Amino acid sequence: MITIIVACATNGVIGNKNTIPWQIPEDTKLFKEATKGAVVIMGRNTWDSIPEKFKPLSNRFNIIISSKGPDHFKQYLDNSNFLVTNSLKNAIEVANLLKKEIFIIGGASVYKEAMNNQLVDRLLISHIDGEFEGDTYFEFIPTEWNAISEVPYQGFKLVTYTRK
Question: What average pLDDT does the segment 131-143 reach?
Answer without folding.
Answer: 93
